[in-house]
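SAMPLE LOG
Freezer: B-3
Tube label: C17
Construct: single chain, 144 aa
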Amino acid sequence: MADKAPSSSSSPPEEVADETQDWILGAGSGWVEARTSCDHLNTLSPDLLHLPTPDTPCSRCQNPVENWLCLCCKEVLCSRFVNRHMLMHHQQTGHCLALSYSDLSVWCFCCEAYLDAQIILQLRPIHQAAYILKFGEAPPLPQL
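STRUCTURE (predicted):
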């Protein structure tokens, strides 16, 4: 049986088409679907409208960037990409909710998931306060 000659058609191989579709849909690009609920919201600090500013350094190593705000006790600690102080804080205290001052995302260590801070009503005022501190204006209305 003779080998088939390569096709000269202009359509991409099926494998390339699948990769393109995955890229368009977000797979493999780091796209994460944030959760719209969390069982740990009852651990939020009662005073989250008075937040430390986004330029607050890590309380343990004084790192000035990539910091997270613990939403249970309001301590500012560095990310896992720096000295892992927020992760250690979670492991030592059980505090599981944190807001990134880099991109204002909210992470639940217990759920191991990002939370949609614009959809979850308990998180919306926190996100808005952090946004105003970081950008000096109110955030755009969420696209529902």
